[in-house]
Amino acid sequence: MASIVTVQVGQAGNQMGFEYLDTVARTALNDAGHAADHDGLNQHFVEERDGSRTARAVAVDMEPKVIATVVRKAIRGGVWSYHSDCGYAGARGAGNNWARGYGADGPAAGPAVLELVRKQVERCDTFSGFVMQMSVAGGTGSGVGTRLTEMLRDTYPREAIMNQIVWPYAAGEVIVQNYNAVLSLSRLAKASDAVVVVENDAMHDVCSRILGTKNISIEALNAEIARHIAGFLCPARGMDPVGDGAVLADLNDGGLPDLLQTLCPHPDYKLLTVQSIPQMADTHRAFANYHWPSLLKTAKQMLATGWPCQEGLNWRKPSQGPPQGERNRVLASAVTLRGSTLKDAPLTEFPPTDCYVEWSPVRNRCRGSPFRLVEHDKSVTVLSNSSRVWKPIEQCTSRAWGTFVSRAFLHQYSKYGTSEDDFVDSFVQVEQIIKNYHELCK
Predict the structure, then answer these.
(1) Whole-angstrom Cα distance, residue 424 to residue 404?
(2) pTM for this one?
């Protein structure tokens, strides 16, 4: 099985990276704690000579505290650990300043981080690509993460690179978060093969509906993000509809490169979003009894509407739903089923053909795995390239432009080499991305 090297950058990136790797490990183990999905383990972990498992991961932050914390948490879990030579930590943080992360801290950290990455790549029998995990609200994840992505692209020009970014809350976490997000996205859209945009607001809404409270912890939020990402990144096989059910291929599919090639058929469209069901609290799971027809029906409507939550879903047909300009229009999608009795999954019900753009060469790809996703006996994850993504980006960009025209905080960026012209170039590029996706709705 081709292996993936994850690079987790900044506080949020490292916290998400830990939760993701822990989710992968728990998905690949059976109830007795023994390896069930060997491909899943080999994709993300190295089995050492003493039988222990170490993650194929590099942890990067501009201060050591967060890296030390996730390393300790992995050791305490007793299932896997980070390699002893996995981390790069600076002396102090980037101060929520994208320019400092991109122009100063990133170049300083680059050679050492690339050396750590090289060691991880050389430990892979077959290498599939990189997954960069980062937030774009602060300074380290956005600035250093963007710079490292460009360095990886220069060093590994033929390898697949996928960035999983957390888009900031609309209400605001950091006063300059909109600057940081726009500057990051404008460059990641060039350097990366695909950018999976995880909206904090959407994930918070999912967790709020699951837990029944608006006070969501960072741990709960990261755990839900990790489940969404693992749903499509863990190994899966191709699936084809047969009669009222489906047949699973004998071999795993082509991994990350093939998946990204399917989902990003045009270089101007690289932004992906992910939806995953079922969504329920741990206390309700013992009483749930899901079947493939109902799960696929729900996933189909979530894709058609672009709604991230299982609850509150608009069940009207697209032709009866929102106005044409507000419908979710899809270039390509990949639906991944995980769990038992995959042969009973009615794949002919998926996808909703009336929501795809006419010129897309490959509309949907079906994949499956007999191994359940953590505690869910059955689950469906949909990764799609669709128009849903333009609204939160447009809102963030509009706020960033309002701050820019008032010339607020620009001096903090200029002293690290990010000029007003750099801002204007980033606005132009992101506005073009927004326009491209918005025009899909017309």
Answers:
(1) 9
(2) 0.94
